[in-house]
Structures are given as structure tokens and as C-alpha cells.
Design brief:
CATH architecture: 3-Layer(aba) Sandwich
Structural class: alpha/beta
Number of domains: 1
Order of helices and strands: EHHEHHEHEHHEEH
Shape: globular
CATH topology: Undecaprenyl pyrophosphate synthetase
Helix content: 25-40%
Strand order of the largest sheet: 3-4-2-1-5-6
Number of strands: 6
Distance between the termini: 29 Å
Amino acid sequence: MKKENQKNIPKHIGIIMDGNKRWSKERNLPTLDGHTKGYSKMKEVPRWFFDLGVEIVTVYAFSTENWNRSREEVNYLMKLIRKAFTEDFEEMNKRGYKVMISGRMDELPGDLPEVCIDITEKTKNNTKGILNICLNYGGRAEIVDAIKKMIKNKIEVDQVHEGMIRKYLYNNELEDPDLIIRTSGEQRLSGFQLWQGAYSELLFMKKYWPDFEETDAKLILEEYQNRQRRFGGNN
């Protein structure tokens, strides 16, 4: 699929990367092996979509609810995230990705908040594609945080409208996702991009995230091209 010959390419794709633990369980592997495999897949998938003409890929890396998992699993996920932002950072930078982080960064452990700020600063001028990582993120938490900022800034009642609320969302300059994908067969958003995804097309895949392949990216775009988006009007 050559992007110059394609029409109706989604500009922004959101991905709920689900199924790592079940992938491990079905293979009688330790749970953490699934996260390792899922992480290696996350490093490749944005490039597949960018090469097809997508401009923004938002991935759900760690939710505000994920802190309720076992301490071992949470600690391992934090180590993987830190590895991505330090040891593997140069690979993303060389590929020209602009990395953005959406979520409550200040609540992350250790020096991760500073690491997040550093990676976004160092890649801010890259132009090969935007990789937006939802980290310690929840759609409800995002809206709550937006309201708190509005109150702190003394926004008056008659100033509150959709545009004003959007102004206070995380990385508000990003356009809404045209398409949201969830792997593993689960059919729910689990708090992902609740405000932004109001009119996103949804696609649920049965395969687990570690099994996602480059051919899946192409098939997903073909599926999107066969849909007619509607935004509540008579179209």
C-alpha cells in the first residue's frame, strides 16, 4: 500500500494495546514475558502506520487503574517505560518521531516525570510522525484535571463551552482520533480518549497485542477506507 495512492487515510489512530497477559498465559509463559513482547511490538507499530500515511499514533501504555495490579507487575511496567524513554529513546529520535506524553506525569515514580519532560523536549521539532503515549492516563481523570485547571484559572460559568474544555485537556493541540483500535477481543474503551473519541470509528480485533503484525496495519486502514463517518448530522 503506497500512501501517495491512498485516499481517506486516518490522520490520527488510537490504540488500546490489550492482551499481553493472556498471550503469556496461553503459551504457559510468565506474565511479564507478555509485557516484554508487547513492548517490543509497540516500538514497531507506529512506524508501520506512519509509513502508510497516518500522522499521529496514540497508544494506551498505562492507565490510572493499572496501579491496582500486583506490585511486581507495576514495577516491571515502570522499568519497561523507563527503558523506552532512556535506552531506546535514540531509536525513536532517529526515526524522527515527535514524542508526547498524556497523563498525570507528576505522579510517576522516581525520575520518570523528568525523563518524560526530557524526551518531549528533545523530540519537539521532529516531523516524521507524532507518537502520543498515554501514561498514567484515564479519560475521566483527564476531564477532572481540566476542570480543576479551569477553576484555578477562575474561568467564569458563561465562559465554559466545549472549546474551553478542550483547551485544558492534555496535549490539546492534537486532533481527535479518527479511529480507535483495541486488540484482544475486548469491546470497550476502558477510559481511553473519552472526550476526544466521541466520534471516532471503533475497531476491535480478536488477536492479542503481541501478535499484531504489519499486515494488520494495512488491513485496518482498508477497513477504515470502507467506512462512511458520521458526526450526528443527516449525512
